[in-house]
Structure formats: C-alpha cells, structure tokens
Design goal:
- This protein has 581 residues and is mainly α.
- 69% of the residues lie in helices and 1% in strands.
- It has a two-stranded antiparallel sheet with strand order 1-2.
- Helix 3 packs across helix 5 and helix 18 packs antiparallel against helix 19 (375-384).
- The relative contact order is 0.05.
Length: 581
C-alpha cells in the first residue's frame, strides 16, 4: 500500500513547462502553474497575431498589439511577445527562417511606437535562450534554433535596434572557441550583416579580421595566399596523429568571405534577401512617417558580456529600469577610483582650486576632461566613475564650464555630449535643463571686459546647443524659454544658436529639428513652442538684415528660415483609431 501511495504521489506531480507560448496548457495544469485566465488569453492572442505575420500585414498586427497594451500592463505584453517570438524562432521548420526578417521588422516598429522597452525585452529573451543553446550545443552540426536566434539578432542590428557593438562581441566569442559550429555561426554573421558592420565600425572589423586569421593560423591553416589577397589554395592539414585530413570547406569559405569583406567586395547574402530587407525597411519607415513618429529610433547600447553577465544588476541599457544597490566591493572600488583621481599632481590640484572644483566628483570630471586623449577616452573614464544620477549632473555642469573657458568652439565637447546622450537618454533631459540654467545667467549684470568675456563664453555654449540640436541629442522643447519679452542678451544667444545651426549644418539636418515639433506629445506645449519660434523667426530675420554678415551667409539663413517655417506648420493629424496612444 505504501508503494502504491508513493506511485500515486509521483503521478500527481506536474512537470514544469519551459514556456507557455510553445504548446497548449490544459486548464488543470494552468492553475497549478499559476497562470490566470487573463494571462492565458493574452498569450493566446499574441501567439495568434504572431502566427499570422507576413510582409503585407506587419502594420495591421502592430495596431492589434497596441490594443493589448491598453488592456494589459506594458511589461506583460513585452515579456510574452518576446517569449513567443523566441519560441517561434526555435521551432525546427524551414519556414521560420524566412519569417525572421519580418519578426525583426515587427519588433523595430513596436520599438519606435512603444519605446525601447520592447526591443530591450526581446534582446534579453533572445540572449538568455541563445546562451543556453550555445553552451549546451555539441558536435559538428549547428542546431537550426541557434542559427535562427543569431539571424534574429543580425536583423535587429540591420534595423538599427541594437548597436553593432553587441554583434562584434558575439563574433569575438565565436572566434575564441573556433569549433565547427562557431564557423557556421560566423558565416551567418558575415552573410547577414557583414556589410552593415563594415559601414558602422571599420576599425573594429579590422580587429576581428586580424583575430580570425590569427586563430586560423593557430589551427594549422595556410593563410599566406589569403592575406596577400590572391586566390586561396585548399591545403591539407596534419592532425596530431600525423595522418592527413581534408581542409574544412566551411573554414575556407569563411576566410574567403572575410577577405572579400576586407576589400569591400562582399555583397549581400543574395539579391532576393537584400530586396526583402529593403522592402521591410520601406514598410517600417512609411508607417512611422504616417504616424508622425521619428524613424531614427533609439538604439540599445550594450555589450554581450554586460547582457549575459551574472554580476549585472538590473537592465542598465534601459532608462528607468530597476537597479539593485551597489555591493560593498563596488562602493569601495568607486571610492578608490575617486581617491586616485583626487590624488593628482600639485599642478592639477591647484588648477582645480582656481576653477572652484570643490567636490571630489567635480575634480575627477574636471581632470578627465583636461587630460583625456580624445572624447572616447573621456567617455570611458567618466563611465568608470560609476556615478549616481544626482552626481551625473556634475558632469554636465563641469562640461559646460570647460566649454565656456575655451578660446573658441571645441568640437570635443559636442562629441562627448552626443556620446553621453546615446549611452543614457537621461542625459538629454539633464542637458536641456543645463541650457535653461545657462540662459538664466545671461541677464546678470556685466559690463566692460566681463561683458566681452561672457559673450565669448556663451558663444561656445550656443555652438554646443546648435551641435546637439543638429545631432538630435536635444529636442525642439529647448526653445521653450523663447518670448517676445526676451532681453537683448538672451535674444542674441538664440540668434547665435540659429545662425550656427543654419550655416554650419546641411539645411535638411537643420530643418529636421523643427519638423520634430509634431513629436511633442502635449498639444498645448506643442502649439506654444510653435508660436514662440515663429514669432522669434520674424525678430531673427530683422537681426540678420542689420548684421555685418556677408550676402551669401544672409541668403543661406533666409532660405533656412523659409524651410524651417514650412516645417513648423501644423500637419494633418493621424485619426484617433490609428494613433494607438
């Protein structure tokens, strides 16, 4: 009887399912697994939509998914959407491979419509499944599910949802192991997004090529003819036992492809696939244009190591995501780093005192800006400080101060500001508030030499603002302080900003700043800013007419004002049924 009881208990145990998206879950098991009826309904709806996705109905299903966002929490929709798409990609079917570009385009549209959390959740789910499959894959044949997930990542890079940095990290990981499966995965990367990677970062690709040839040489492969650019000779390689084995054709093909990529002779995987991707891009761009949304969506900047590392606390690549408190070792490392920067030479310490850098954070940022080799070096050193959100404001203040102290405009500060905004969108708001604070300082009383010095300092700030507007780091809402009652100094400052924007950047790039007025969500704020800019344009045109600028510059400014005024005009709004929010 005891044995029968034990057998009965074993029969009552319910095995945990890996994913509710992959197969049907009976109602009895659903209760034991804690799935509510609403969650199951959401699962079923999303899976039904994803099953019907094709090139011709992408936008229709985007709007259907948007309806689910209004009925369920964004987190639940994003999570289930990511899991279902990943489970679809892991199915052993030939049709799945053809649908992966459509899945990537679908994610890219939702990423632009609903925010970076969509792409972030998808990236997290893909990386988790890919890491598990990659760690457990053995043998010479690469699982189709692993290839499909890598293809999805490649196309997310092609659609500019993920930064190319992550793909370079994956390629380095494949090169390090260099097993037959890795060769096949490298081929997938090269054929799917090799041309795009070359256009994004040629120097990083050059480093990858060097690593591949070095690894191939260590494996006993003759690469002399390849490195010289000639035709590759298929050789024979001796194994440890001394017998000969045929050269792996996959390695040969990969090396030939890398040489073609290095010489900029690598074409897309095929004309049909290239046209397919281009068609999907056109569908996404036309839909976003119809919705009056920006086509250049925010990329996810994160390395593969950060994404998969167990030490990472929270989703650091998403603004506003939860972050765990730093450990004692991290706090100690931060204190040591600040102390190291604080223990600077007497000359630097004296310089910090002269410029009133009165906190350890400000002194650290100040010394980094003054001693860095370039803006990338400064960016990396600032990140290593691991500052809190409140301390990050010191970065903006010190950067503004150093920019003002330059004899003329130094593009270093523009490049660094753009890099900071690309890394963390929270910096965009901090910069905007920083510019508003600087505008308030303009009306302070100053005369004589002080007035001359202040004009030079704020000339640099005006050029920084013009650069950040042109590079889309700052939105049009920065013009909110505009008013017909502006003082002479503030008026000259904004006129300086517009002159730099209209004369130093392509007219299309400058006009795009004002076309983004429709992206301002609040209607009252949108109309207020539009009216203020239109009124200031009339005042600015009179200032240009009375200035000492040459006729060519004046004509260029007039044409830019005309284009910007046209871009500011209200456009027909999207019907509420299509707006989605």
């Amino acid at each position: 009887e005891d044995e029968d009881d034990e057998e009965g208990e074993e029969e009552e145990e319910v095995p945990a399912l890996k994913s509710t998206a992959g197969k049907y879950v009976p109602p009895a098991l659903r209760k034991l697994q804690g799935l509510s009826s609403s969650e199951e309904q959401l699962n079923r709806q999303i899976k039904g939509y994803i099953n019907k996705i094709s090139d011709n109905n992408l936008t229709v299903h985007v709007e259907l998914i948007e309806v689910l966002y209004s009925k369920h929490s964004s987190y639940d929709v994003n999570e289930k959407l990511a899991r279902i798409i990943v489970s679809m990609c892991c199915e052993e079917q030939m049709q799945v491979k053809q649908l992966i570009p459509a899945y990537a385009s679908f994610i890219s549209i939702l990423h632009a419509v609903k925010g970076p959390e969509v792409g972030g959740m998808a990236l997290e789910e893909i990386s988790r499944e890919f890491s598990n499959l990659y760690a457990n894959s053995k043998g010479d044949i690469c699982p189709s599910s692993l290839i499909n997930l890598l293809l999805l990542l490649c196309h997310l890079v092609n659609f500019e949802i993920i930064d190319a940095l992550l793909m370079f990290d994956l390629i380095k990981m494949f090169i390090e192991r260099f097993a037959p499966q890795d060769i096949e995965l490298l081929l997938v990367c090269l054929t799917s997004c090799g041309v795009y990677l070359r256009s994004q970062d040629p120097l990083a690709l050059k480093e990858i090529i060097t690593l591949v040839f070095k690894r191939a040489f260590e494996s006993g492969i003759d690469i002399q003819s390849l490195s010289g650019g000639g035709k590759f000779r298929a050789t024979e390689v001796k194994s440890d036992k001394g017998d000969k084995k045929p050269f792996d054709l996959r390695v040969k093909f990969m090396l030939e492809m890398i040489v073609s990529l290095k010489n900029n002779k690598l074409r897309e995987n095929s004309t049909i696939e290239a046209e397919h991707l281009e068609r999907l891009r056109d569908i996404a761009q036309s839909y976003l244009k119809k919705r009056k949304l920006r086509e250049d969506v925010e990329k996810l900047h994160i390395s593969w190591n950060d994404l998969t590392s167990g030490e990472m606390k929270g989703r650091t690549w998403l603004v506003g995501s939860a972050m765990a408190a730093p450990t004692s070792s991290q706090q100690r490392e931060k204190r040591e780093k600040l102390k190291e920067l604080d223990d600077m030479g007497d000359e630097m310490r004296q310089l910090c005192a002269e410029h009133r850098m009165n906190t350890s954070t400000r002194r650290a940022v100040f010394s980094i800006l003054l001693t860095s080799q370039d803006y990338l070096d400064a960016f990396e050193k600032i990140l290593k400080l691991n500052l809190k959100s409140k301390e990050e404001r010191d970065i903006i203040q010190v950067l503004f101060y150093c920019c003002q102290q330059e004899d003329g405009w130094n593009p270093f500060y523009g490049f660094l500001s753009e890099k900071l905004c690309e890394f963390n969108a929270a910096f965009k708001f901090s910069f905007k508030v920083g510019f508003w604070d600087k505008i308030k300082e303009l009306e302070e009383e100053a005369s004589g030499e002080d007035m001359e010095k202040k004009q030079k300092e704020f000339g640099n700030v005006a050029q920084l603002l013009a650069y950040m507007l042109a590079s889309s780091c700052i939105t049009i809402t920065v013009f909110k302080p505009l008013s017909v009652m502006l003082g002479a100094k503030t008026t000259r400052f904004f006129a300086n900003v517009l002159t730099n924007l209209f004369t130093k950047y392509p007219i299309g790039q400058a006009t795009a700043v004002f076309s983004a007025i429709d992206a301002v969500p609040q209607k009252d704020q949108r109309e207020e800013i539009r009216e203020k800019i239109q009124a200031f344009f009339m005042q600015y045109k009179k200032l240009i007419q009375g200035s000492k600028a040459d006729e060519v510059t004046k004509e260029k400014v007039y044409q830019a004002i005309k284009s910007a005024t046209k871009a500011l005009k209200p456009k027909s709004r999207v019907p509420t049924s299509l707006a989605g929010f």
